[in-house]
């Protein structure tokens, strides 16, 4: 299978009062075409730092990040990487969904003659075509979250970085967002997902990377992580949440 993303031996240090804080230490992993890979770990484990380096918002102190075999370290936000941080901010609430996406299409340097077609394409993918001319300020949280994903899809990126895509959403709306993410994977888009919702990771991730104290603690499928945790039940397999909670004490920084 073709590797879309290769992260090789990434290190990131921060310095305060001449003391070194190791945010990331020797992080390496791959994401294949159409694969959903999830980062799991406690707050402060290094997940956001990894996403920021891949997204071009932060430089590592060592290591490589390759997209389709091409180094992207030191570049600004890469046109083949879409980033969705979600939340209530990021859009002009008095403008329509279409007008907002036109603004971001300009920022993404999509030629003006192609913008209408491109905006129609991404709105259709996230099922917002019927509200394209509605002011974003009148959107529900779920609609806004889908618009964030539409924005990230402008320019047809090969890799999508999704940070907590269903945070704060009710069960039904969260399910629709997960369905959208799964559909993107089926279209061949590779996805790096961060989420604190274990059921979401369990439902979506092809591969899971467990991060602790800036290092990779474990990688594999849900079944692999469950096995690593050594949590056992008489009548059923352990869930990912039960397994993660068993591993959590080993992931914290000392």
UniProtKB/TrEMBL annotation:
Entry keyword annotation includes Nucleotide-binding: yes
Gene Ontology MF terms in the entry: ATP binding
Coiled coil, from the record: none
The organism's place on the tree of life at top rank: Bacteria
Classification via Gene3D superfamilies: P-loop containing nucleotide triphosphate hydrolases
Residues annotated as domain ABC transporter: 5-238
Annotated keywords: ATP-binding, Nucleotide-binding, Transport
Entry similarity comment: Belongs to the ABC transporter superfamily.
Protein name, per record: ABC transporter ATP-binding protein
Species name: Lactobacillus bombicola
């Amino acid at each position: 299978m073709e590797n879309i993303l290769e992260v090789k031996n990434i290190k990131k240090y921060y310095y305060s009062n001449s003391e070194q804080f190791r945010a990331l230490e020797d992080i390496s992993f791959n994401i294949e075409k159409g694969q959903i890979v999830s980062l799991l770990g406690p707050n402060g484990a290094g997940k956001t730092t990894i996403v920021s380096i891949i997204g071009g918002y932060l430089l590592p102190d060592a290591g490589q990040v390759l997209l389709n075999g091409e180094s992207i370290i030191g570049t600004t936000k890469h046109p083949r990487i879409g980033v969705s941080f979600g939340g209530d901010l990021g859009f002009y609430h008095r403008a329509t969904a279409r007008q907002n996406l036109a603004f971001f299409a300009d920022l993404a340097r999509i030629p003006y003659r192609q913008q209408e077609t491109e905006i129609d394409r991404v709105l259709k993918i996230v099922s917002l075509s019927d509200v394209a001319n509605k002011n974003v300020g009148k959107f529900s949280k779920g609609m806004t979250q889908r618009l964030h994903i539409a924005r990230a899809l402008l320019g047809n990126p090969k890799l999508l970085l999704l940070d907590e895509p269903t945070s704060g959403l009710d069960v039904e709306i969260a399910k629709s967002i997960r369905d959208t993410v799964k559909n993107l994977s089926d279209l061949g888009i590779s996805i790096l997902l961060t989420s604190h919702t274990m059921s979401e990771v369990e439902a979506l991730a092809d591969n899971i990377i467990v991060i602790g104290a800036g290092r990779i603690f474990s990688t594999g499928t849900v079944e692999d992580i469950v096995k690593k945790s050594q949590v056992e039940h008489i009548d059923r397999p352990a869930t990912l949440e039960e397994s993660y909670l068993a591993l959590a004490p080993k992931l914290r920084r000392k």
